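Weekly modeling sync, notes
Attendees: S.R. (lead), two postdocs, one rotation student

Agenda item 3: backlog of single-chain predictions. S.R. asked that every request posted to the team notebook include the full sequence so nobody has to chase files. The rotation student volunteered to paste the first one in as an example of the format we agreed on. Action items at the bottom.

Example entry:
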Amino acid sequence: MNKKQFLDTYRKVSHLNAPSRTENKPETKETNTSPKPLYRSPEDERLIKDLHFAKFQKNQENLHENEELKLLIEKPDWDEDDIQTLLKSLR
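Predicted structure, as returned to the notebook:
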């Protein structure tokens, strides 16, 4: 996944969540006001999204390099220890 795809995912999630937010709220004065912006500035938005993308890349690299996880994924039957190993490797 590249950075453009990652940012497109942000937009899609925001777009999917937008209708559900307005449908479930009763009509009050609070819903008529404009919502607060999620980010203080475009620069903040860019920095936060870059940070999330960097974390994503780091986690993806760690998972691809983790031999223990590769062996675990190929294993047909899992027991409780395997599940704990999986959770530990994903933290």
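Discussion: group reviewed the output briefly. The helical segments are 3-23, 29-32, 42-65, 67-74, 80-90.
Action items: rotation student to repeat for the remaining queue; S.R. to check formatting next week.
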